[in-house]
Amino acid sequence: MTNKTPSLFSIILTDYFCFLCTIYPIVIGAVAGYEAYSDPAQTETNPQALFYILLAAGGVTGACFLLLIWRIRLIRAVFRRGNSVRGKLESIRENKRRRFPLNSRVTFSYVYKNKTYKKSRYLLSSEDLPSGRHIQIMVNPDNPGQAFIRDIFL
């Protein structure tokens, strides 16, 4: 039996790390584009500055792309080959900035092969996750410390 894997959009819109790796290149590209085209006179007098801005933007975009691919492959591999176990939500801490929710740190525990694990993940939203609730966890059988909350990705 093959386990169901989360979609690309589900991963990006759930996992905070993947979301950041997606949004950073967009923001940095917009800033670099603005710098490149906002003041043509400055670009003509100092072309090296534009080169370094575009180089930095390209470097950040490349690094974010590689990290995003790595993280998506990791999550999908755990869902594809992993074992589903019952876990418990230990706590949810919502991080806010100026009263607006930024992300949530979700801490959960589970038992795999008679060993108890406690992990935490940063998520974009934790609206449907009340503390103390029992949940399904996908665990990597080769590395039981790698686990993801099945209920929020699928």
Strand coverage percent: 25-35%
Backbone structural class: alpha+beta
- The value of Rg in angstroms is 20 Å
For the largest beta-sheet, the strand count, sense and barrel status come to: 5 strands, antiparallel
SS summary, helix count = 5
Quote the distance from N terminus to C terminus. 17 Å
Instruction: Indicate the low-confidence ranges by residue numbers.
Output: none
Number of strands: 5
Element order: H for helix, E for strand:
HHHHEEEEEH
- Percent helix, as a range, is 40-55%
Integer average pLDDT: 86
Description:
This protein has 154 residues and is an alpha+beta fold. Helix content is 47%, strand content 30%. The protein has a 5-stranded antiparallel sheet. The mean pLDDT is 86.
SSE blueprint and pairings:
Blueprint: H1 8-12, H2 16-38, H3 40-45, H4 47-81, E1 83-97, E2 100-112, E3 115-123, E4 134-139, E5 147-149, H5 150-153
Main features:
5 helices; five-stranded antiparallel sheet; 154 residues; alpha+beta
Quick recap of the structure?
With 154 residues, the protein is an alpha+beta fold. It is 47% helix and 30% strand.
